[in-house]
Design brief:
Layout (H helix, E strand, L loop, with lengths): L2 H26 L4 H16 L8 H20 L3 E3 L5 E2 L2 E2 H18 L6 H21 L2 E3 L4 H18 L19
Antiparallel strand pairs: 1-4, 2-3
């Protein structure tokens, strides 16, 4: 197995561990501290391995902002309610926002210098409601019954968010979407 493949497995596995720590922390602590610590460690390890750098700080804050807006829309619509809301912004826990940053960092670390294929991002988006169902099974949130229409709306929100977020410039990356020419 190549070193690149091992690196990819470690990054994906690392993000999965961060997700579990965040969901567990959201379910068992008022602050969600296990998720916050896991995200900080994940970012530090990616930085130490040279997979992300300080130059990605701005784009990763974009992931935090867009993630917050998406989650706020879901909370505001009454589709989800988080159980760990001691450290929150408008009923969106800090650990959830940090999880969006970790997801962005994982994508940057996996696909530098290119960007992830659009079809893969859309597959993530279509599966996004599963993450909410899994988080609910941990007790980190409660979720309204997922009708097909609600599943589609959650997925559509993720399609829009992931497509926009992967357009953010990061060190050594270039967009995978075609650029418009000056004449168009």
């Amino acid at each position: 197995m190549s070193d690149a493949r091992i690196q990819a497995i470690l990054i994906v596995g690392g993000f999965d561990l961060v997700w579990v720590a965040a969901a567990y922390g959201g379910a068992t602590s008022r602050t969600g501290w296990p998720g916050l610590v896991a995200v900080a460690l994940f970012l530090a390890l990616l930085g130490a391995r040279g997979r992300i750098s300080g130059r990605e700080f701005g784009p990763l804050m974009g992931w935090a902002l867009v993630g917050f807006v998406v989650e706020l829309a879901f909370v505001g619509a009454g589709w989800i309610a988080y159980t760990s809301t001691y450290i929150e912004i408008f009923r969106v826990p800090l650990w959830v926002i940090a999880l969006w940053v970790a997801f962005g960092a994982a994508l940057v670390a996996l696909w530098r210098p290119a960007k992830p294929p659009l079809a893969l991002l859309w597959a993530f988006a279509l599966a996004a409601p599963l993450a909410y169902l899994a988080g609910a099974s941990f007790g980190a949130l409660t979720i309204a019954p997922l009708s097909p229409a609600r599943w589609l709306l959650i997925s559509l929100a993720y399609v829009c968010a992931l497509t926009a977020l992967t357009r953010l410039p990061c060190r050594g990356t270039q967009s995978f979407l075609p650029k418009r020419s000056a004449s168009s």
